[in-house]
Every structure is written in structure tokens, then in C-alpha cells.
Amino acid sequence: MAQARTSTQRHVEELDLLQDQPRGGDAAEETLDESADPLEESGRTIDSSEDESVDDMVVEDIEKFENSFVGINKRYRLINRIGEGTFSTVYKAEDLEYYKYNNRWDIDERERRKWSSPARAKRSARKPHYVAIKKIYVTSSPIRIFNELELLFDLKNSDSVCPLITAFRHQDQVVAVLPYFQHQDFRDYYKDMKISEMRLYMKSLLTALRAVHNRKILHRDVKPTNFLYNKWLNRGVLVDFGLAEREGTDWQQCNCTLTPEERRYKNTNSVWQQKVAAWDVTPSMPKTDTRSSRRANRAGTRGFRAPEVLMKCTQQTTIIDMWSAGVILLTLLTRRFPFFHSADDIDALLEITTIFGRKKMKEAALLHGQVFQTNIPSYSEYGHSLEKIILWCTGRTDSDKNAPKKELDDEEKDAVAFLYRLLETDPSKRITADEALRHPFITKAYEESEAEDDVVDLVEV
């Protein structure tokens, strides 16, 4: 195993990945743009403690990993498997060489020393320190692996973003060593969160997204299992940059970047509009189309992709992550996970249409030079309000028309007003992470925190 650390600070090993050839063939490449289904993957990230019993299959998996990656057990004591996804497996491990290095990445240790007395800090100086070891599958493209490590290294000092400690390579295997963060499974708390707790959750997530977006990086896979949240500390960490990329990668001009006048001219003179004018009716879809199909990055998880990703926008920006954040907030407010559960991109578009209606989806499609059509009669022209969706999902609708109309409470209305800014089908109108952190719904979290501090001060007096 190649040396990757110095006596003062750990560094990312220079991985000569670009010269390698990806393994797995076409079958592997077909799935590279998609994470596992959110319902399947939600149970694959667990918070383990050392005294927790480890499944025999996990023990066997750990032994196999240690035997295949020579020298890993001399530096780390693998404890449990805590995550399993489409492209990697993550293990909890004790760092056996922690005290040989300058561990500026250790947020928890910094906080502990900050608030501990010198005597207590000395007593706990030799306590075990844990890391997360991410084993990246050999079927992953070498360029993808290199890209993930490079982005993690660039984000090493960012707020609420999981930093990269170091990385190793042994033959065709690559592992990334990351901090281990205690967190709770999303399914254990999302149904019981109060609005004040949702506010803190979203504040932490948006803080991470602001740091990522300020560096012009698209995460592309924002979802609950990629945001490790500790509800006791009101702190979360954004992880898994396996699908992330820099803004502007493989861009080709899309109609959404044109001025309204230019876009109107292109749409008016398009093949579709010429057929509409000639036939004086909406034409049917052609059985054969000689034009080349549009190719665009569709990386992400089903149910969390923004409309522009589904519509193959060729100039996607960091704003796509804000839609995913909106889906998480919608999940919290409706108490339904996953909220969207589509089989493919067409199903996903129809699910969004159910809420926002045909008119808005047609406008969104035209924005990207596409045409949206459906003959399913159950989809209304204007869809349903988010307020109605939340009331319906939480069982607050009444079939009795004479019964008093049920409404959301004031805090829920504040959350919905914020949700509309996140779930905006036009990406140019969608709120950014920086703007979101200044939105009244989020800033109220600061006010509530200050109020709690005042209560503590009064108690101490």
C-alpha cells in the first residue's frame, strides 16, 4: 500500500487514475449516473457503536476487504459496515495512527478541547478516534474516482461538508478515508420533526450547499442518506461526492440561457411550431425522428432530480441541488418518504405534473427547447397547491363538505412559503443556497437559538 501521509499532516495520495481503463464494460457504465433507489438505500447508512453486534456476513466482508487491501489493518481497525451504495461501501474504523498526525479535520475533537478543562482534556487524550473508510468499487470509472477525490480535497475546509483525510490505492482498489460522524437514520426521526427542528435541519443542509456552490460545484445527489444529521447536536454533514462535478462541465447551449426574446424566436420557428401552424391542431409525436437525441447529465437519485435534469438541460447549474433540498423539506412536511417514487424519468415528470399541473410543466419544457404533452385526463391544468398536498398527506382533509375547512398552522405556512421558493420549476427563479439562508423561515432559527441562550443566562443568574 502506497505511503500517503507525512508526520505533520495527512495528504491525498497522487492517484494515477487517468491512465487506467474502466472495468465492468457497458453494463457498469449504464448505471453510473444513478444512485440506488432512495427507499432501498435509506437503510444502508447506519450509526454504529463499537459494542453493537456485527452481522456474520459483515465480519466476512471486512475480512475479505482486509485480505485484499494489504496493510489496511495496520493503520485502521475495521469495526462495522455502516454504508452501502451503488458505487461504494463504507466502514467504520478506529484510526490506529491518529496521534502521529495533525488532525485539523477533526471537528468533534476541536469542540471537545474548546470546552474541556486542561485536566479533563489530558485524561481523554488517548481515547479511540474513528474514521469512515470508503471502498470505491473497481467498476467505477477511474476518471470518476479521481474527480470525487479532487472535489473532496478542494472542499476540505468547507462548513458542514465531509472533508477528505487521505486516500490510498492498492492495485486496482482505491479507498478514501473520511471523518466518522455520528448521526441518526433519517427514517427514525423524519415523521416526528417539529417545524423548529426542520428549520435547523434545513439551515445545516443549506450551509453545506452554500459552501459547495460557492466553489461552483454541483453535488448532484442531495438526499437524506447523503446528509448525515445529528439531531442532538443540530448539525449535519454533506457526504458522497461520487456524482459531483464542476459547473460548466460538458456544457452545450440550452434555450434556458437565452434572453426571453431569443427563446421566443427559436420556439416560434421550431419544427414543432411549424407543424402546429400547418395542421392548425396539436400534431402527434413523429414515429421516426431523424434529429439526433439530446444528451445531458442525468446523474442523481430518482425522486430528487430537478425538472431541468429530467428535461435534459445541457447547461445545468448548482441550482439543481436546491430542488433536491426542496424535496427533502416536502418529505418532512408531508411525513412521506420517499415522497416521489418513480420508475424512470417519464414517471418522474408525471409525478411533478400531478402537483404543478400541465401548464407549468409545458412552460418548463419550452424553457429548455422541449415539448411536454400528455393525454392523461387526471392531470389538471393547474395542479394542486403545496398546502393541499401537505394537508392530504397528513390526514387533515375531510370528506364532509359542511365541516370547517382545515388549514396549516402559521409555522407550517412559513415553511410552505419557503418550499415554493425551492420547488420552482424555472431554475432561474429558484432560490439559491445563499438567498435561502437569508430567508425568514431559516433566519428564525437564529432567533430561536438566541432566545434559548437568554433562558440559559437567566437560569445561571
TrEMBL record:
<keyword id="KW-0418">Kinase</keyword>
<dbReference type="GO" id="GO:0005524">
    <property type="term" value="F:ATP binding"/>
</dbReference>
<feature type="domain" description="Protein kinase">
    <location>
        <begin position="76"/>
        <end position="442"/>
    </location>
</feature>
<dbReference type="Pfam" id="PF00069">
    <property type="entry name" value="Pkinase"/>
</dbReference>
<dbReference type="GO" id="GO:0005634">
    <property type="term" value="C:nucleus"/>
</dbReference>
<dbReference type="GO" id="GO:0044773">
    <property type="term" value="P:mitotic DNA damage checkpoint signaling"/>
</dbReference>
<keyword id="KW-0808">Transferase</keyword>
<dbReference type="InterPro" id="IPR008271">
    <property type="entry name" value="Ser/Thr_kinase_AS"/>
</dbReference>
<keyword id="KW-0547">Nucleotide-binding</keyword>
<feature type="compositionally biased region" description="Acidic residues">
    <location>
        <begin position="27"/>
        <end position="40"/>
    </location>
</feature>
<feature type="region of interest" description="Disordered">
    <location>
        <begin position="1"/>
        <end position="54"/>
    </location>
</feature>
<keyword id="KW-0067">ATP-binding</keyword>
<dbReference type="InterPro" id="IPR011009">
    <property type="entry name" value="Kinase-like_dom_sf"/>
</dbReference>
<protein>
    <recommendedName>
        <fullName>non-specific serine/threonine protein kinase</fullName>
        <ecNumber>2.7.11.1</ecNumber>
    </recommendedName>
</protein>
<keyword id="KW-0723">Serine/threonine-protein kinase</keyword>
<dbReference type="InterPro" id="IPR000719">
    <property type="entry name" value="Prot_kinase_dom"/>
</dbReference>
<dbReference type="GO" id="GO:0004674">
    <property type="term" value="F:protein serine/threonine kinase activity"/>
</dbReference>
